[in-house]
Amino acid sequence: MLIVMAGMPGAGKSTVAKELGRRLPAPVLSVDPVEAALWRAGIHRSQPTGLAAYVAVEAIAADVLALGQTVVVDAVNDAGAAREQWRGLAGRQRVPLAWIEVVCSDPDLHRSRLQGRQRDLPGFPEPAWDSLAGRGAGLASWDDERLVLDSVRDLETNVGAALDRLRQPFRN
To answer: pLDDT for 4-44, tens place per residue?
Structure first.
C-alpha cells in the first residue's frame, strides 16, 4: 500500500507518519530531508530542488513497493501535480493508495508548533506562518477520498483512527 500524508507545515503530519511507520512497520520517506540533502550536495537553491525531492522520493517509494512492502510518504502535497504523481505511482505499482491529511484546527497551536519547530535539517528554513495561507488553497480544492486527522487530538487517537482506516478497502 502507498500511504501519502498531506497537510500544511507544522500541522503534525510528520509526527503521525513516523508513528504509523513504527506501528505498521513501514518505511517513512520524507521530502524535506531529501531537498536539504540536495542543497548539501551543492545543488543551488535556485534549481527546482523541491520538485527533485518529490521525484527522488517517488523513485525510492517505487522500489519499496516493488518489494511488496507498504511505504508512507511524508510531504505537504498541496499541489495537484504532486498528488497526481502519487496516484500515478500507485497505478503503476498496482497498489492501493491511502491519503491521510493532517490539519490543526487551532490556529494559535499551529502557529506555535511551526514557530517552535526545530528539525535536524541544517540549512532548511522553516516556512513563515504568513506563507501558509497561500499554500492552503491547493489543499482546500482537493477532493480525493482521504482520512482527515486533526492534530489537536492526541497522537494515539489519531494513529488509531489511521490504522482503523488503513484496514478498510480503498478505491483508487
So the answer is: 999 999 999 999 999 999 999 999 999 999 999 999 999 99
The DSSP symbol for 82 reads: H
What's the CA angle centered on 32, arms 123 and 105, to 5 degrees?
110
Q: State the chain's mean pLDDT as an integer.
A: 93
- The span from the CA of 8 to the CA of 22, in Å, is 22
Q: What are phi and psi of 133, to 5 degrees?
A: -55, -45
Residue whose C-alpha is closest to residue 83's, from 37, 150, 143, 32: 143
| Domain 12-166 in this protein, CATH class | alpha beta
Verdict on whether the full-model pTM lies above 0.85: yes
Q: pLDDT tens, 157-168? A: 999 999 999 998
Which of 17, 43, 12 lies closest to 113, judged by CA? Answer: 12
Asked if residue 2 lies in contact with residue 93, where contact means CB atoms within 8 angstroms, the answer is yes
CA distance 14 to 76: 10
Distance separating alpha carbons of residues 31 and 37, to the nearest angstrom: 10
β 147-150/71-74 pair status = unpaired
